[in-house]
Amino acid sequence: MSSQHNPVALQLAQFLIQHQLTLCTAESCTGGMVSSALTEISGSSNWFERGYVTYSNESKRHDLGVPMDLIQVSGAVSIPVAKEMALGALRSSGSSVSLSITGVAGPTGGSIEKPVGYVCFGWAWKIHGELIVEAEGVNLLNNKSKINDDTRMAVRTLALQYSLEQLLKKLQAAF
Fold first, then answer.
1. Helix residue ranges, H only, the chain
2. Local confidence band at 143 (pLDDT 50, 70, 90 cut-offs)
3. Peptide bond into 107 cis (omega under 30)
4. How many CB atoms lie within 10 A of CB 113?
5. What's the rounded mean pLDDT across residues 49-66?
6. Helices H, strands E: what count in the chain?
7. What's the rounded Cα separation, in Å, for the pair 33 and 76?
8. Hey, what CATH class is 7-174 in?
9. Which site from 9, 21, 50, 158 is most exposed, i.e. has the minimal number of CB atoms within 10 Å?
10. 40: buried, middle or exposed (CB in 10 Å: 19+, 13-18, 0-12)?
11. The whole model's pTM is what?
């Protein structure tokens, strides 16, 4: 494993191998960046099952089973939708672990309630027959950053890193 890889992705890969777990992703605003970072690691087919890029509301419903009424009531960028995306990915992939991301990458599209940089994450896994699901919404920019053309990539990169860091922490605590 080369040092050019994401260090957290490498640690996560080692954890998944050690515990004989498989991972799938359900990404919206990151558009497959997490899956790409994971599959850059040689041997990832041993622990990475698949990645869903469900950018549209319809794809969230069709591919992951997220109820359209939930999307309409809570919004595509919401903690309940991130939770359902993680559950749907786990269900449809047969993986033992999933992570989901849906957010406002910008530089347009933000609102007072959900500003540019607001990203919702979901994580789900099965341990000893029990299903665990966690989700949270985080303003990755903390309203301190000036919104410009570089913002979109910054938010997506921060979301990639945050999703992997939190998943690794959560799995280490659970196992």
1. 7-18, 33-39, 57-64, 68-74, 79-93, 151-174
2. low
3. yes
4. 9
5. 98
6. 6, 5
7. 19
8. alpha beta
9. 50
10. middle
11. 0.95
Token pair listed for 12 = 């996560």
Give the domain ranges of the chain.
7-174
Can you list the positions of beta strands (E) in the chain? 23-27, 48-53, 97-103, 118-127, 130-139
Residue with tokens 């050690």: 18
Tell me the residue type at 58: E
What residues does 51 pair with on adjacent strands? 25
Packed helices 57-64 and 79-93: angle between N→C axes, nearest 10 degrees? 40
Min mean pLDDT across 4-18, 34-48, 56-70, 131-145 is at 131-145
**Percent of the chain at pLDDT above 70?**
97
- Paired tokens of 69: 């009424």
Is the predicted pLDDT of residue 1 greater than 60, yes or no?
Answer: no
- B/e letters for 89-107, b = 16+ CB within 10 Å, e = fewer, are bbebbebbbbbbbbbbbbb
Residue type, 149: D
